[in-house]
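Note to self: keep these together.
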Amino acid sequence: MGGYRKLLTLIEKDFFEFFSSKSWIVILVLPLFITFLYSVIYRQAETKIFTVACSSNVNPVIHEIFKAPQLKLKIYQDLNQAKIDLAAAKIDGVILESSNNSGPIKLLVDKAHAAEAAFVANAINLSIIQAFSRKNMPIIKLIYLNRTVPTRWISLPIWLIQIILTVCLLQAAAAVSDEKERQTIHSLLVSPMTFHDYIASKMIWNALIGTGSVLLTLILTGAVVNYGAILTYSFLGCLVYAAVSILIGLLSPSALFARTIATLTYIVSALPMMVKDLSFHWKGILNLLPSNLIMYGLERALLPNPFNGIFLLNIAVILTETLFLIAITYMALKHKADF
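Structure:
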């Protein structure tokens, strides 16, 4: 029982240090920021009705396209007035007259609202497909637990990875290196606490706050996910990057150097997300990165049945990588008196 009490004491120390500093603001701000994106920006893109102007003698085909519920056609006698309203953000686009009825639809948009312009174009293209596809052509509709999956959740795993990397890598590495510079670690190790207790408490604490931040994000956004699968991979991801942060923090000669190495590690870990949709010969090497394995698990959590053989194999690989990092840390520091 003595070991458990020492562990709880160290976690309690981290708890009070965490909330007495400004670190807790990051844990709170990230979920609030992501919630804002999903509740306001992404939801607006899915539900907003786009108003597009056209002349009174517009091609009848245009009227057929704009029967979609997400599109609204507004008739103008003078398109110059429509362009003025577009610049004032009163409408989302203007259909320019074309002498060729079979040619492409020319949509005038405001460059200052490029993101909304893309949403308008996507809504029109989708309406064209639905309006002019053959009646016997099947339309794909993704269903999740008897509900349609909103497209905004597709990017959720990327934001959750950002939380894990920020909380359990950048912030944790800085905290460990700061403790080393203040010689707090030395004070702990001359007490009944051991190096094993220190590593275990740091990993548990960072895994708890990282997973807690992910859980808070899921609750605030009301994400349509498999909570068991997503929290499993989030916790494992927090563990592996907590191990990385401890290694960086303890082996770095200064806090500034630790922050620099942690930032570089962050960039390398984010690489699978940046090249996810690209194809190149050595892309398979990225599977060795924990972030790629975590991303797979978080993406599977969007499916009705996320658990499969690869899902469970990745869990075993992440645990192995975590233990390997802990072993490296212990071996590197076992005979190093001044760290």
